[in-house]
Amino acid sequence: MSGGIILSRRGLIRAGALGAGGLLLSGCDRLNSSPGFRAVLESGEDLHKASQRLFGRDALAREYAPSEMSPVFRANGSREVADAAYRALLAQGFAPWTLRVDGLVARPLALPLAALRALPQRQQITRHDCVEGWSAIGKWQGPRLAHVLDLARLRPEARYLVFHCADRIGGAPYYESIDLVDAFHPQTILAWRMNDRPLDEAHGAPLRLRVERQLGYKQAKYVMRIEARATLAGLYGGKGGYWEDSSGYAWYAGI
Amino acid sequence: MNGPPPAGPEPRGGDLVRRHRLSTRIWHWTNAVTLLVMLMSGLMIFNAHPRLYWGEYGANFDTAWLDIGATTDGRGTLRIGALRLETTGVLGVWTDPDGIERHRAFPWWATIPSRYSLADARIWHLAFAWVLAGGLLVYLLWSLANGHLRRDIHITAREWRPSHIWHDVRDHARLCFPAGAAALRYNVLQKLAYAAVLFALIPLMIATGLAMSPGTDAWAPVLTEMFGGRQSARSIHFLCAFALVGFFVVHIVMVLLAGPFNEVRAMITGRYRVPREKAPVP
């Protein structure tokens, strides 16, 4: 092999490396918008859910001491609700408000705040992990979702609980959903109290879902209605939540 | 040496010999692509909240030890503790290919995707995480079985001696690389670097990544606690990522200095031309 050939090959490698850098970027962007490639990447979500359920189906999220709480609990997403009916309820301290529980249940419910407060309460100091990367530790109180579902008596074909919320983002209603494993988890509560005070508007008054082993966007605020469903298909974008529909965030948000 | 032990006489300068095993070559390139995707999608995820904290919690009202941002008059800054650097054009404030000034931490050319999307970056990052973890596990088991770890990575008592390490450091500083059969063995600095990547940096990336998952934290709280909390795990994740970038830079420089064609060929085809011994300097 002559030196000349080596040099030209070296030149080729160098040019190739530079070209590869540019190609890599545009290539990744092209792959990112290719439905087939995205489907492969998104199948990772099934693996996440299956592995988390395998290792920790009934595991409890860590709970903290009052001394470990965040001095300020950041509010994110909707911090205000524009809806006129909501504003009227807020002004009245949610006295006329009821939580509707319907869909695939034997006994649809309309529960006022007083009824939710009268159910056995669970209090937990947990860490809220936002998908963006930040965390805040706060204290939550409310009845277990399981108690409410027992009152409403889920029909056997029910597989998901959908939380319909009062807030809208960019005109689209916020909603979220969980499956029955998370719905009946002991730490899954309908919180009406946060840090020893009734929930404020920024954090989701009058009622916020706490599903402690998942990220912040699953913790639906301003919950107005809980609907039991057999499938998430046919509801809004069909992916089971506002962020799932609008931006492609994972429905299973335990990672 | 990476290939099977030589049956015949020791290879001499100029010989074309078998160098890297198939397992090493497959893992090397899979891992190179995976780490690049992990880094670039990870930088995009960082962009969603460009602040790092120590401890269990940390958000905008808490004290960050590192943040990348923009000043009110539009200058990009990187702050680490009390140290503040202006980074306009690269970090915090930069211009995208359409000429629009963006106020985000890492620039478009360093992220996957190049336009801001936390959701898409997470899809890439969390899918390739399986390739990274699975690849490392299979490679380590394979290398344990075929003797690669014992023969090539294991650092012997003799090599641990400070005088030996110092000798190797001096050789590297003088860009004096071994020739002949000695070039077929990893020197102690190489072994230390490869062992650090295999047994410390990538495992730490995986462990701190898992420690950030609220699902995993429920059934394996020891992982998050071990790092001193979720936000500490996130900080360590970021620091290890940049340690891997540091490894990558040194690795590339060494390949370029040692002869990129021969080195890259060895990692693709497995064949390596043994460097010729230089005539002794009088």
UniProtKB/TrEMBL annotation, chain A:
Pfam families registered for this protein in UniProt: Oxidored_molyb
Start and end residues of each Oxidoreductase molybdopterin-binding domain: 96-229
Gene3D superfamilies from the UniProt entry: Oxidoreductase, molybdopterin-binding domain (3.90.420.10)
Family matches, as InterPro entries: OxRdtase_Mopterin-bd_dom (IPR000572), OxRdtase_Mopterin-bd_sf (IPR036374), TAT_signal (IPR006311)
Highest taxon in the source lineage: Bacteria
Name of the protein in question: Molybdopterin-dependent oxidoreductase
Species this protein is from: Novosphingobium album
Automatic annotation (TrEMBL), chain B:
InterPro entries: Cyt_b561_bac/Ni-Hgenase, Di-haem_cyt_TM, Hydrogenase_cytochrome
Entry's localization field: Cell membrane
Domain Cytochrome b561 bacterial/Ni-hydrogenase: 19-270
Principal localisation: membrane
Protein topology in the membrane: Multi-pass membrane protein
Alphabetically ordered keywords of this record: Cell membrane, Membrane, Transmembrane, Transmembrane helix
Membrane-spanning segments: 26-46, 123-142, 192-215, 235-258
Database matches in Pfam families: Ni_hydr_CYTB (PF01292)
UniProt-recorded name of the protein: Cytochrome b/b6 domain-containing protein
Organism name: Novosphingobium album (ex Liu et al. 2023)
